[in-house]
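Feature request disguised as a bug report, sorry. It would help if multi-protein outputs had a clear separator. Right now it looks like this:
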Amino acid sequence: MSFELVELPALSRFTVDRQEPLRGDAERLAQLWPKARVVSVDEHGRTLVAERASRLVDRPATDFGDEPPEGAVLLGEQDGVAYWAVPTASAEAGPGAPAGRAWFGVEPTDEPQWLDLRACGALLDDTGAGLFTSAVALFHWHRTAKFCAECGGGKSAVKAGWARVCAQCGREEYPRTDAAVICLVHDGADRVLLARGAGWPEGRYSVLAGFVEAGESLEACVAREIAEEVGVAVSGIRYLGSQPWPFPRSLMVGFEAVGDPDEPLRLADGEIAQAKWVTRAEVRQALEVPGSVPDLLLAPGASIAFRMIQSWAAAGN
């Protein structure tokens, strides 16, 4: 039985107009700057959040000077207010949850805290989730795209942080996105195939995923990755939705597919530590009360995997 996503994946939410034409309009950007709002992101991808991690803490643009500082990136405009992000050093950011340590969630507090996107992405409101996701993706690209792919010359940021131009040959480059598929395999009835990646905590399971290879379609990638990772042939491959995953620059394209639970599981050495078929009732219980089902902790809320599992569990009787 097929299903639909019950809600947008957490990091697919975005309310601000990206305003691509605005990025090259220096006059309009100067007009908007005095009323603009700015969020700070440190080199670990953390930002300051408040109200139990549901809201980004932003500041008036004028706190940063009369014009956007070096390294600032425009995130978009909403109701006449431009939103920017600026890089900041972790020493200036202050203490908070270490980046990556809160991969499987964080305990929100009443005090503002510095958190990364994995930890708070599912808790943020729609506007904050979209702004933070874009900022993390852009800043990673700027850190890793300092030199021209054509001639090796140094590049500088243009278009409000959405492009870089080589000083030697003039080549203009833009942020890159790597396509990856993620697939929930079920039996067409009430069982789903879940797997634990090598290096994951004991008991933590999710759906299967992998990067699209050159010259490969998304559907072909789904079939190949499932066969390579767990040895199961799938059919009925169907698109569900997508989500940016800027760790560092992926776009996760979600699918469902049907597999045979009687087919032997053959786990990819070094990639998959465990895999098993789980009933819908067990998944529902694990979602309702995390930790209540032995050896079944599910994907974190910021991931599209969580939304896919949640949506499959909600379908059926």
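(second protein starts here, but nothing in the output says so)
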Amino acid sequence: MNLPESSLRLGKAIGILLCAAILASHLVSISRWSEDRGVNDDICYLRQAHLFQRFGLGGLDTNFARDDDGYFLAKMKNLSTWVDGQAPVCHTPMSATGKLVLQYPPGTGLMLALFPSGHQVVALYSVCTLIIFLFACAAIWLSRSRAQLALATAFGLVAIYMMINPVKASYSIAPTMVLCATAGLLTARLFAEERQRQRMVLVPIIGLLIGIAVNMRVPNLLLSAGYCAYLLVAFLATRKATKFSDGVLFAVAFVIGMSPTLVANAINAGSPFSTTYSAADVVAPSLDGETIRAYLGDPQSLLVVLSLLWTLGSWHQGKNRLALLLGSGLAINLTFFITHPIFTQYYTIPICALTLWTLLFAFLIPPSHQARSR
């Protein structure tokens, strides 16, 4: 149901104020965080940031021998599990280079390095939460009816809330959320756009964003799965040169986006395509009842169900191409994580965020020919 313009403006203002209230509460909470909460992953991301601040781009080399100032050793001594003489946590020995290196890609450390030492986590989360708030405001502002306004407001409140729980669980998820929201908006715009020239601009930008996400955490590589499946099917179904060029543009931009990780792999592991993760993280997939039960009993399962149902709903509404992209991406990501023996409360959050932001903006953005005729 469409609202009178004055009522719609009032509703938008109320929605934005509600989101701003959650934002303010979060910023107060975030301002009290400590960077020494005794978590292995945390101090490893901070070590990467420290390397970038000391050596600039030379910080891509994470050889533990470069801890000559004792920064990481001091961090490890704050761990509750610390024992004298223990090996550095989240580091992997590389036989090809003879180095003991960080297992993580460089993106999260680089983001943290943009802020002053000692205040990096608070600053990163504050900035990322503020950006998510702005995306929520954009969604509210795009609303043209009561249903759209209600959905955009509720979505914004949940999206901002999630920037602490569960996003706080890993520093890599905060910037991932921003990239997923941005890619979601542009993907929705891509499917609303009918002009090929504009589509050829949007496709590589989306590919670049997904590639950049890989630098935050390697499993973000799977965020590209739905796009690859859709672009391949679109080309095979039409055999048009424009569809082929879309695939090439996406692939090239994707590789450019993840190039910092490829360079870091070459420096630390001896090859762009060699992983710096330990054997425990690269085991063969297998179905395990305990892992499945863990996902089913975790709150992220609600986001998974919502993503699946909304994607099916978009198919029912005739948005078959969008449903193909999102549905295949969900299927591939969920299959990987369910068959991966390690469970965390945030593994499926990125694909759910990408899917839900895309669906939200697809619901709000009219096709380009309608927008031009208004």
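Even a blank line would do. Unrelated, but nice: The mean pLDDT is 93.
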